[in-house]
Amino acid sequence: MGNISIDIENVTVAYHGKVALHSASIKLEEGVICGLVGMNGAGKSTLFKAIMGFVKPVRGKISIQGLPIHQVQKRNLVAYVPQSEEVDWNFPVNVYDVVMMGRYGYMNVLRIPRSIDKKVVQESLERVGLWDLRFKQIGELSGGQKKRAFFARALAQQGTVLLLDEPFAGVDIKTEKLMIDMLMELRQAGYTILISTHDLASITTFCDQVVLINRTILAYGSTSEVFTEENLSRTFGGSVGDFSGAKTNSRYLH
Amino acid sequence: MDFIQWFAQGFIHWFVAPMQHEFMVKAILVSALVGLVCSALSCYMTLKGWALMGDAVSHAVLPGVVIAYIMNIPLAIGAFVFGVGSVIAIGFIKAKTRIKEDTVIGLVFTGFFALGLVLVSKIRSTIDLTHILFGNVLGISDSDIIQTIIISVITLVTLAILRKDLILFCFDSTHARSIGLNTTFLYYTLLSLLSLTAVAGLQTVGIILVVAMLVTPGATAYLLSDRFDHMTLIAMALGVFSSVMGTYISYHIDGSTGGCIVVVQTILFVLAMIFAPKHGIIAQSKNSEINY
User: Quick check: is A110 in a domain?
Assistant: First the structure.
């Protein structure tokens, strides 16, 4: 059991007086993969934003590896892999440029890559199998390759906390397997990984812990303990049906 | 042979003859500089989706220009205050009311612009409204040239230093924030540059057409390139070319300089839209034939 990596203490977040998340408390250790499960609007992205420091909690406190958020940003500790829908795939940048963006936090004001930055970018691209495609404009990649490109950026950032937003939406089996293998490796290396997803079935296969969220934390703990039918129906506000059918059902939960 | 000689002479004459006038030399150099600066910025405007914002800010600077004129301070300062002020007003109204953003933008910039018109009509000075609205590069004063040069240097140096941060801000502001870049600073930097270049563009093409200078070269270059740096270079080349050609054409046909510049820019855009090697309409339709 490692040290506490993500420490969320009684956090309440509100936008213009409307509470999006209240009294949330989570402690995640190093070397843990945790699934974050909830409906749209349940507060998953609010929780991500709070961890990245984009919204300031009206109550409560968040620290990453014992540091306050502004220190966390300066040290590039939290890497975020966005949903594919959030990215402008027509933007005139190639795969290499995108992964290099993971290194900006380490560079000087002009963001001129040093040899260490180039080395880390190459390693990250090789690790996700995109080195040969590095000069492709990002829109020319397949769905799975696009995901891997942003995963490589998170690797290049070398933060030890990884936030993934719907990482398996629209990716091929090869990419899903490759990413799960890599997540397992990163867990071994002491990363703390928080995955927001609708895909309940994949969570049971590789997540150590699960957080169920619906405006507040409904339940959190080891996957087997938390994934009860009762908890899931509280999360999704109705019956999710048979557990083995969770994967198919999850498609209707959007 | 005679024809070629005649044509070559005519061609040279077309370019050289106007240069006998000092005002044309000034006009062409200033237009080229403004074209260069606006085009560089236009890449960020296009990719950030800020065309409407560019239109808003360029119109909203009008009262600032007039007030600066009355107070006898550089027009750029007044324009800067009102340009940034209009954006703050847009942000404030959007946050505090239920009105959608495009409505707020339309509402604020026309309000500012109308205030400017009232001020111009009331102060009865030597300020010429048509020059502000449609540009007057053929009659540009030396102090305006100096102002344009200062604005250009500030804009180009800022873009050169912050290039990569601004690209990241346009591409993925979430990531930019998460690694501790000050996105608020980048946002206001881009807006400030927009206000400043609006003043520079105002000299050449006028307030009404400034938005074309701030959008069209970037959009054309975007169809011609898949790398940001190439896109910027192409946009700047197109911007300078359009400005110079437009100024020449306006001299020869005795027509509106701003109008000619923007028409040339638009023609270049249409050519790129049709013939661009990869993203043009012809190339796109060929691609889809291969795929299906």
Answer: no
CATH number at residue A37: 3.40.50.300
ipTM of the complex: 0.89
A201 inside domain = yes
Whichever domain contains B46, its CATH number is: 1.10.3470.10
Q: What is the pLDDT of residue B1?
A: 64
Which B-chain residues 246-285 have CB contacts (< 8 A) with chain A? none
Interface contact B223, partner A, CB < 8 A:
no
* Chain A residues closer than 8 Å to B184 by CB: none
| Secondary structure letter of residue B98 according to DSSP | S
Contacts of A213 (CB under 8 A, 6+ apart): A21, A24, A36, A37, A38, A42, A43, A44, A47, A235
Let me know if B68 is exposed, middle or buried by CB neighbors in 10 A (0-12, 13-18, 19+).
buried
Count of domains in chain B?
1
Please report residues of A whose CB lies closer than 8 A to that of B222. 92
Tokens 């608020």 label which residue? B184
Q: Is residue A239 part of a domain?
A: yes
Dihedral, CA of residue A10, residue A16, residue A17 and residue A18, to nearest 10: -80
B20 within domain boundaries: no
CA separation, residue B230 to residues A46, B57, B184, B224 (Å): 37, 27, 27, 9
Residue B162, CB half-sphere, CA atoms under 13 Å: how many?
23
Size of interface A-B (CB pairs under 8 A): 72
Q: Name residue A161's beta-bridge partners.
A: A78, A192
How far apart CA A195 and CA A171 sit, in angstroms, is 15
Looking at the DSSP assignment, which residues form a beta bridge with residue A15? A18
B125 φ, ψ (degrees, to nearest 5) = -110, -165
For residue B204, the enclosing domain spans 33-274
Number of domains making up chain A: 1
Q: Is the pLDDT of residue A192 over 90?
A: yes
Residue B206 lies inside a defined structural domain of this protein: yes
Q: Is B157 in the A-facing interface, judged by CB distances under 8 Å?
A: no
Per-residue pLDDT reduced to its tens digit, A62-104:
999 999 988 898 889 999 999 988 899 999 999 999 999 999 9
Q: Sort strands A161-165 and A192-197 into parallel, antiparallel or unpaired.
A: parallel
